[in-house]
Amino acid sequence: MADAHNLQILRGLIKFKSNTQKIWGVLILLTIVTTVEVALGIMKPESLMVSVIGMKLLNWIFIILTIVKAYYITWDFMHMRDETASLRRMVVWTAIFLICYLLYILLQEGGYIEGIYSTGHVKRDF
Amino acid sequence: MNTTVVNTGTEGKTWGGGNQPLKSSYGKMMMWFFIVSDALTFSGFLAAYGFSRFKFIGSWPIADEVFTHFPFLHGVDAPMYYVAFMTFVLIMSSVTMVLAVDAGHHMNKAKVTFYMFLTIIGGLIFVGSQAWEWNTFIKGEYGAVQTKGGNILQFGEYQDVNGEQVFKRVAVADFAIAGHDERVQQESKTGLWFVSEETLPEFTVDEVYNGLKANSNVLVRTQIIDEHGEKTVLSRGESLKQIKDNGKLFVQGANLQVNEYGTSLFADFFFFITGFHGFHVFSGVVINIIVFFNVIIGTYEKRKSYEMVEKVGLYWHFVDLVWVFVFTFFYLV
Question: What is the CATH number of the domain that holds B135?
Fold first, then answer.
């Protein structure tokens, strides 16, 4: 909606005065998140290498930060924040449900095949 | 004359018909639905990547060791800085795009033109960077030996860095000893016209083996990731044995068949997913250019609506959105 922009982000924690100002604000936020990601990726702190639900904690942090970035790109750059709730749900939940299903099936099967390989039923080291 | 029954008792309500419940134009809504389907396509690719990665979780290449180059900085180990730069360029061009959309809402033609121009430049820088990234990846740096089982054996040596023993890669070309028995590439003009072969590798495995034997400091590193998250380095004896018994092909760089960095699936997915994304960026740039010229000649001024800028903007942001995920799954995780 051209005339009615919702100018709050972070549930009203930060309120912007104009749409242009909000765009720059979101850019700063995205830059901070990307910088944190790259810094963590280069340092790889030992304390974040513990395994949490089948993956390293560091990888979970990366994925969560990515979803945070995706949220702000969709909500503020693509103006999803200003669309009606029905359009928003139609687009977002459809994608989320299907992607979760796809990921579950494929990652589960990948892990199964890895199990077959590593328990020695298939020789790969030659 | 109206012959249908229209009295449903829901007239005037949101979904009662005759109005626009989503308060969105047809074009914008269809762009959203296209984006959903395209998002599912990319998710399919990335999930397939995840599948292969989980399958080879103990031997997948470590991205920091693959993408270590930065343009004009030769020999400097700069993991990920360049992709971080590319990510920033794409986010920046997303910002200029959304500023163009905003200027369009205010019917400010000059500003829309300016911001569209910046967006196109950003897109071109990104596509160019990706071409450079591909080029570096395809050329490779150190070379490796592929075994009969399709595993990759890389070479390196322990060096003293600030009193600590650090494993540093060594290029095969630096230690391999060229032999005398040169094999000539079979071309279609030298024999049967339908029989030919690909370019021969620079070294034979024997040449690599002789070089390895002559350089007692060089060790072999396998694909297997140990408990510290690093690739396993073999002992001297084991290194020689592996190359002698299992070495089959010298590999330099990466293509769809072989990959010096590790499993060839890594290269396949890299080419396929970043290629598909790069194609999206390219087509986005083309559409942006078309809209840019339409802005200049005043098409949207006459229409009294810059909605087309908004629609192409949605597509452009989506390309950025996909890159955010590609960046995470290829370079970070």
Answer: 1.20.120.80
Identify from A32, A78, A84, A96 which residue to disrupt to test chain B contact, counting B C-beta atoms within 10 A and taking the largest count. Answer: A78
Interface predicted TM-score (ipTM) of this complex, two decimals: 0.90
Confidence of residue A4 (pLDDT cuts 50, 70, 90): low
What is the pLDDT, as a whole number, of residue B318?
96
Instruction: Label residue A17 by pLDDT band (50, 70, 90).
Output: confident
Domain extent for B171: 144-178+199-252
Residues of A in contact with B43 (CB under 8 A): 95, 98-99, 102-103
**How many domains does chain B contain in total?**
2
**Which of B308, B321, B323, B329 to substitute to test the interface with A, most A CBs within 10 Å?**
B321
Report chain A residues whose CB lies below 8 A from the CB of B80. 38, 41-42
Q: What is the pLDDT of residue B18?
A: 77
As beta bridge partners, residue B147 has B247
Burial class (CB in 10 A: 0-12, 13-18, 19+), B167: middle
Place of tokens 């984006």: B35
Could you tell me the residue range of the domain that residue A99 belongs to?
84-126
* Dihedral angle of Cα B271, B274, B278, B281, to the nearest 10 degrees: 170
Residues A95 and A48 in one domain: no
Q: Which residue of B has its CA nearest to A103?
A: B47
- B240 and B273: one domain? no
- What is the count of structural domains for chain A? 2
Q: Are B274 and B326 in contact (CB under 8 A)?
A: yes
pLDDT digits (tens, 9 = 90+) for B223-273: 988 888 788 899 999 999 989 999 999 999 999 989 999 999 999 999 999
